[in-house]
UniProtKB/TrEMBL annotation:
Span of the signal peptide: 1-24
Protein's recorded name: VCBS repeat-containing protein
InterPro entries: Integrin_alpha_N (IPR028994)
Keyword list, A-Z: Signal
Organism of this sequence: Kibdelosporangium aridum
Domain of life: Bacteria
Length: 208
């Protein structure tokens, strides 16, 4: 939807051009069972210069790393990663916050697919981006529905089109994340409604 794309693009641009806060480099240590063996592996998120952060996952003696951008909010440091299982295969993925906006946070999704740490991408190889937040003008949500092989990732984005009645226009997209880290689009439904419309609902707790 054009209105949704414009809102998200504006939010990203606003943060990208903001001055980065000055604070000491930091690390966040976490745990996630990225290979599904029942024993969580160490996960480290490290701050790097120039609005960059590094994700490190340690499997045995090998450390797998990936770098991604990070634009934090004012006077904030790194944001702890979120551990999820987007396809319910017992291999946990890691959501990394890339942008902390005024009202909406932007995430990338990483997992151990095959024999390496990879970013989840759509079928056209574009990085999959998820959003959470929104204020009066926008709705941005993610979640999951279903279990086992039927689990799907849900992404909801919408913008207000009627301030008098708080009516939003947007879309709900579902994906299936396969064992190679590709998010295959399963459905895309557009429409209008109130913020509590079923079209705009998504449960992030269902991704755990």
């Amino acid at each position: 939807m054009r209105i949704v794309a414009s809102i998200l693009a504006f939010a990203a641009a606003t943060v990208a051009f903001a001055a980065s806060p000055a604070y000491a480099a930091e690390e966040i240590h976490w745990m996630a069972d990225v290979n599904g063996d029942g024993a969580p592996e160490p996960v480290v998120l490290s701050e790097l210069p120039n609005d960059t952060q590094k994700l490190t996952v340690k499997l045995g003696r090998i450390a797998y790393t990936a770098a991604m951008p990070y634009y934090p909010g004012p006077d904030s440091g790194l944001t702890p990663p979120r551990v999820v299982d987007m396809n319910d295969d017992n291999r946990q993925e890691i959501m990394v916050t890339e942008i902390v906006g005024a009202h909406t946070d932007h995430f990338s999704l990483w997992g151990f697919f095959g024999s390496t740490l990879k970013q989840v991408r759509t079928a056209d190889q574009a990085p999959l981006k998820l959003y959470e937040g929104g204020a009066v003008a926008t709705i941005a949500r993610y979640g999951c529905e279903g279990t086992g092989a039927d689990r799907q990732l849900v992404s909801v984005t919408a913008g207000i089109v009627d301030y008098d009645n708080y009516i939003y226009e947007g879309e709900r997209v579902t994906y299936h994340v396969d064992s190679t880290g590709i998010a295959h689009e399963k459905s895309r439904v557009s429409g209008t409604g109130a913020a509590n419309s079923p079209l705009f609902q998504a449960d992030p707790n269902a991704c755990k």
